[in-house]
Amino acid sequence: MIKPPSLARPRKVEKVPFVELYAGRLQGVVSSGSDIERVYVSFFDGSSGNFNCSTNNNRPCGGLRSSPCKHLQALMGEAVLQFGAPRVIAYLGLGADPASAKGPGDLLRFIKGGPQREEAGMVFSRFLTYLHHVSLPSTTAPIPEMNWFVR
Questions:
Q1: Residue 13 to residues 19, 24, 45, 75: CA-CA distances in angstroms?
Q2: Tens of pLDDT along 5-37?
Q3: What is the DSSP letter of 27?
Q4: What is the distance between the alpha carbons of residues 123 and 103, in angstroms, rounded to a whole number?
Q5: The whole model's pTM is what?
Q6: How does DSSP assign 45-67, residue by residue?
Q7: Largest alpha-carbon pair distance within the chain?
Q8: pLDDT in tens, 47-80
């Protein structure tokens, strides 16, 4: 079992409001640096090493080339902060040594895939569901849409 890290600093939720390890991918939502109304949906796939970054309405990121763009770099940085480098390495199946790979740049060197165009809808929908659950008022009553969480 990998112990969750203590955060070195608070997460930058205004820059990367959503980051998760899900369905074999590190994925999330990254805010645009130039337009407050725009967000980018980004992911790294663990099985292929491929990655993608596009707006929530599927327009490709202008900085995405053969290597990860600044949005993908920010996603990796917040993932390392939130989950710790060993957990991200294990989840994505990267060949990095967890003892020597501390920061996001150390992990990005082990991404062996390339850009892979994919619809952003699934990740963005998970983000919107997350926002909905975070905005619910505190209660001790059951929340029907979260019954999957209770054993």
A1: 9, 23, 22, 11
A2: 566 667 677 888 889 999 999 999 999 988 888
A3: E
A4: 24
A5: 0.82
A6: ETTT--EEEEETTSPBPTT-SSS
A7: 49
A8: 999 999 999 888 999 999 899 999 999 999 999 9
SS3 call for 9: coil
CA–CA separation, 80 vs 126, rounded Å?
Answer: 20
Residues 6+ apart with CB under 8 A from 11: 78, 81, 82
Total residue count of the chain as it appears in this document: 151
Beta strands in the chain (DSSP E): 18-22, 25-31, 39-45, 51-55
49: left (phi over 0), alpha (psi -120 to 50) or beta: left
Tokens of 39: 């967000």
